[in-house]
Queue: 4 jobs
Job 1
Amino acid sequence: MKKITAFLCALVFAANTFAADVWYKTTDKVLPTSTGVFTVEIASMGTPKLVAVTITRAITDGTAATNATWSKGWSDGTRQWVTSISSQDGVTTNVIRDGHDDTQTVLINSLTGGTNMAADGTGDGSGSNPGPFTDGWRFNMTLCSSCVAYIAKVEFWGGADLEAVVSTDLATTGAKTFPSALSGAPDLMFVHTHGDNFDTQGGFLASGWGVTDCTTEIALGVAQVDGVNPSESAQVLDTSKSAGQKSGTTWAWSTSVGTCVSTGYTLTTTGGTGGDELGYAAIYLGGGNSWVGSVDLPTVTSSDWIETGPGFQPAGFGLWTTYLTAEDVHDTTVEPIAFSYSTFDGTREMVAGISDEDAVNPADTQNLVHDRFFHMADAAGTLVFDSDVCDVTFVSTGI
């Protein structure tokens, strides 16, 4: 298996080693099943400046749930961006739905089209207003139709030295420079891409998620086809892209982060059209360190995994795990789309993931969430990789 890792380093774990006043915290939240305001809080955390929310249809840690759904949203309190994908389980003809929205931080697609959950995460956070406040973030659930109690995995960034900005733009072909709202060049950029127009659902799913430190970039692209029998799905892990829209055995379009300086950063897109969008969260660590890389997971049980690529002791990390065994190769074999996203802040481990089996009838799609470091299942929901006995710790050079 291959995974994407994004380590970041800050004051919170080693005050005498790292110059930046930056912190990273994670928690989870059972979302309400009706409209209205709700909060996600961590005691004594401070006021966050950036939040990321990851959701699947699984509602119980360690128990697979059908109808694969993935939602990833960001908010800096002023701007927000979310992408969401859904794949129906047990149908003889694939039913794929996808969506994205720059007016919500939380978005869950209805399997029959449209949206059945949406929440706004922008505002000043005062009173009942959505947005950041001391020790938490407030959201306004604007739509909740036939909702169930989804578990959201939530990441917070904060600290006096941290700066972050969330933005969206059309992914037209060519290089485009974005003026920076940060005091320095971004240390990390998380880029999400999506086709078609803003705020709509469509029948062909092709989305990408990536991360870059403006030196190294890695993108995970997935593609699923609606209305086919048997099911059709594929994925790729590309070390020359920041994100893109996968189509068959190639990228329909892709984007790479080029120049990163204090005055701005350049995104260069290939194959983009006027209807393609990208959203990103750019983070400035104020003197802290960051590292992006791709490494192999252990292949035997009860084995130690030590990753020294960062060269420093992290304060937290995010990690994408996939079934792929090779980088930069567009999957052409009959195997499931399967990926998960893990986070660790030095105290709390969390993971959420989905799978969608390729070339089967009826469709077989699953979701998983857990409070563990790794937790991967195959397309039938059978656990194949787990860290039940894994004690994750940060060391001076990595994890």
Job 2
Amino acid sequence: MVLIFLIILTFIFNDSTYSYIELDEVHAYVFERYEKGTFDNWWLVNVPNFPKERKEIEEVEGVYLDQRGVGIYITIWPRPDYIGQVWHFQFISPKGTVIDHTLKYTGEYPYDWLYDNWIKIDEPYSGFFRQNFYGRFTGFTEITRCTTGIDGNWVLRFKEGDAVLKEWNFTLKPIDRGQITLELQSYQALPDGLEEEPNSTSGGDRIDLTVNFNKCTGNVENQSIHLKNKFNNGTGGHNHNETVECINNISRDLYSYCGDFTRWDITTDENGNGTSTFISPYYSGTVDITAYTYSGLYEGKHTKSVDIKVPGLVPMGSSIAFILYPDNEGCEHGALNHNYNQNALKAFRLLAIYWYYSDYNPNNKLLKFTAGSLPWGGKFDDGVCWSSHSSSNHHYHRQGRDCDISTRYSDGTYMNQNQFLDYIRSERLRNLHLTLGDHNSYHTHVRYSGN
């Protein structure tokens, strides 16, 4: 655990005679955590995003030794008259040690800057790094957790040239409220419920986990730690806005996007450790697993993300013999449900081509594929809400082996469904390993039964 002093600075350009900065927009924050960015550029992947859980320095009675800390965050839109301007970000320890970071603008473009250290956030010392391409920078000083002799009054200074434009004072308190560490056996699992499909086996839908609670004096026994999980909207092919955190097994019963735990509440042993097992939800997507505890008004926690998915599914793509059409135009995943196991995909494509040229289809009409699986598999909805577990709401279609084919061609005319069913059962198509599922006047359910 490290303590990072972070001053969050927003630059507003004005016409003052000296400073380029609107000081009312300059702030210092203490924060509990940060998250790394998700930029596509390779040189930005280790840069943290703006801290989500933060308080201004003036609002806290002190900074605790086990907090993530505070840093220097600046956004500057370059202008020609900034050339040569230098800003300083200083951290002054109780012993009077000055840690200084400088930023100098050298040109008209965002990349024409000089700063004293290019550094990744996970390196354990002071530095200055670039937040993004448009001139956002962060300076910080890390103080390793449990370090002694650093408590007392600290000073943070923001300077332009030699002039101090703003200064903050805060007290670093040598109070250790403890730290939770969550470790997962794996960061990917299959969705729950795949064993309900024909030719499927159970397993692969659980992740063992361990938690540890310790203080600077050592591991803590009999500490209560709780577990929860939350579905990340927009993952796995789902476009729902699900805001509910899953905090107990009742959540699992009410919301099928919730995962389960064999133990939702853990008491640590003499080594400060505890164990549980995460059971995947029925739906694919990214799930945040959090271990947390309360100590007074303080909530300590550690979160890690897992991907719930059926690996290896690929999009169906286009063909001369069929079109892709959503089975329900009001369905929130829309056309994202046309993904298949690679062998199944080949079999369904061959079925469409064979039918396209068969004597039963003399006008070479195109089939309509209406439903396969979501990009990461798992159970999906048949409307604007999560589906129930009844067979009427795509009970299968979980791992890329099922395909619904409309009884209407792409031009809206009906096929002879009985002929189509007989054709799938024919000896000629035996090597495609296709079987028939439920069918009705709207569609034919075809399943791939091979490997």
Job 3
Amino acid sequence: MASPRIAIVIAGLLGASLLGCVGASSPTPHGACKDGQVSTCACVGGGASTQVCENGAFGDCACEVTSGDLASLSPPDMAPAVVLLTTLCTYHFADTTTGWRSHDWVAGDCSNGLPKAGWVAIGQGENASGTSGEPDCANVAQGRHYTHPGNDGPSDATLRCWFAPPAAQPKPGVTVCSYAWPEVATGWRWHTWTGADCSNGLPAGSAMGVGQTGSGNGTSPLGNCTNSAQGGVYDHATLQGATSASIRCAYVDPVPVARPELTVCTFLFTDVAIGTRSHPWVAADCSHGLPTPSARAVGQAGNGNGAQEQVSCTPTAGTHVNATATQGSVRCLFQNGAT
């Protein structure tokens, strides 16, 4: 898609020597033109514009440049940067314990400043024991993580919360859909999204999603955000037991954009295995190209039996940990770096 043309005052921003008139090898001599006279001149990078005679001499060439042209100009860092509207906050709880832990966010925890009131979120937890624990990112001022004494055991923990403004849209656009089941149950339960469930309307049919689950007992059940039409939660009869449940899915608009802030990368390990396995990302895994080297992420793990698992997302690979032998999947929502 063509970039909009950006008018630039060349002399002030880049200097006349870079994008000025290049039609002659030397400046037009004083007195060689009449004030107000207009002449055609060439622009660096192609195209033509005009220059106007003032005080008996032609001034700078009034060139324009497109945003696409900027990358070809010197210095190379003049290429437009990724504009960040979302923020990703991270904190590590170093103590080895179980139960709920909380942390009040400070600006240094976050990739793009503190989240603001009303922003929507999804989160990810990690324990050193190879399980996830249960994240809670509902409060923009504070993140929480629960390490279950039976399923996770005493462990340190890492919490990641990705926040997005509900109105101003990043590129690509995103909507966060959520639903809670108050009834106590086990097994799969599904909810078909309605517009009222989502922060920016229903997701597009081919939108890729990453999400988190919640439960009434802190057992972090298996969640499913692969279908943009519905979200699902699986409460294992033994590990979670009968409990209430909730699901939150962040869906990224599939429409291609230039210099995307967000990209979702996914992979399914079809072999049945236990322990850790990793997959190096390729462009085909991702909704909007590979993440940048400085990208940060929240992730969602999936597997074939609802047992304990963990996901880890880096800009180069997705890693999955299974506590029991089964298939596995990784889904990572990356916020690209600002440059």
Job 4
Amino acid sequence: MSYTNLRYLMDRLDYLRGEIEAERISYSEIAELQELGSKGLIPDDDVLLLQWAGVPEHGGRDVMNEPIEATPENMKRHHDPNSAIESVIAWSPTTGEEYSATPGDYWDADPTKPLVDSNGEPMILVRKVTRMEPVT
């Protein structure tokens, strides 16, 4: 199943949450949740869906678990310009600074040299997942 439409994905997650809460979720819907969880498409703060998806605590995506060095080369390799809900950024565990993966920002720099924060410390790659909801 394709989840390229953010609104469809968020509606689907809401539907699956409702099925869990009503205690009538099917095995195929649990399998769907597991697929969504393995792709990182369930927000990290949605504990109920993450538990039902079988995703380990911290989403199994802990940025401190074997971090990838934030070089322009790695940024390009992991950048997905078609993703509406997640992006790869360079992040500093020390200062919390973030650099986007927008082409042109620093993509022409030495591709193997790590990006550094304002303290000169190397940054790591993290996947930033955004949950968009309409204002009501």
